[in-house]
C-alpha cells in the first residue's frame, strides 16, 4: 500500500465518522469513495459510516474488480458513473441525509433543478442538481442514469432515495454533500413562501469567479 493510499484511507475514515456522528448518515445507509491512480477506494457494503476502519475499506482495480478490503458497497455503480463522466471528480459521497431525501420524495421538486440558488455557497460548492428517476438500490441502471447526464452535474438526487455528490477531492465532496443537505433544509423550511433567490447575474458572477460545478 502506497503512503498516499494509506493517507486517503485514514482521511476517508475520519470524514465518514464525522458524517455519521453529525447525523448525515444513519444505520448502514450511505457510501463514500475516492479515486486512486490504480483504482477506487469505497466504503464496504452493510457497514455504518461510523464504524469504518482504514484497513477494511474496499479497493477496486481500474476494471472494477474487488482486490482488497471488505466487500464493496452495492452502490459502486453510482460512483463509477461519476468518475467516467466527470474527469475532475476524484471523490463521490452518497448519503440518505434527511432534508435532501425529503426533496427527493416530494412531487413538486423540479427534476431539472432541484436546489434553487438560495445562497452563494450552494452555487459555488454544488451547482445545478438534477433528480433522476427511481431505481432499486444497487441496480446498475442508476449508473446509466448518471452517465446519461454526460457530466453536466456534479450532484444528483435519486428519486425517493437521496443525494449523490462528486468533488475534486474527498474533503470537497463531503463539504458539497453537507452544503446540499443544508440548502435542502432551507428549501423545506421556506415551504410555500416565495423565497428571494440569487439573480441570474449573481449566479453567473459566482460561476465565473469560482468555477461551474
Describe this structure in words.
- The protein has 213 residues and is α+β, with helices and mostly antiparallel strands.
- The chain has one domain (3-210): Class II aldolase/adducin N-terminal domain (L-fuculose-1-phosphate Aldolase, 3-Layer(aba) Sandwich), CATH 3.40.225.10.
- The protein is 38% helix and 16% strand.
- Strands 4-3-2-1-5-8-7-6 form an eight-stranded mixed beta sheet, sandwiched between helices.
- The two termini are 32 Å apart.
User: Which spans have pLDDT < 50 for at least 5 consecutive residues?
Assistant: none
How far is the first residue's CA from the last residue's CA? 32 Å
Mean residue pLDDT:
95
User: In CATH, what is the class?
Assistant: Alpha Beta
Total strands: the figure is 8
Examine the secondary-structure arrangement and name the CATH architecture: 3-Layer(aba) Sandwich
Number of domains: 1
Here the CATH topology equals: L-fuculose-1-phosphate Aldolase
CATH superfamily: Class II aldolase/adducin N-terminal domain
> Helices and strands: which structural class?
alpha+beta
Q: Report helical residue fraction.
A: 25-40%
Shape field: globular
- Number of helices, where a helix is a run of at least 4 consecutive DSSP H or I residues: 7
Biggest sheet features: 8 strands, mixed
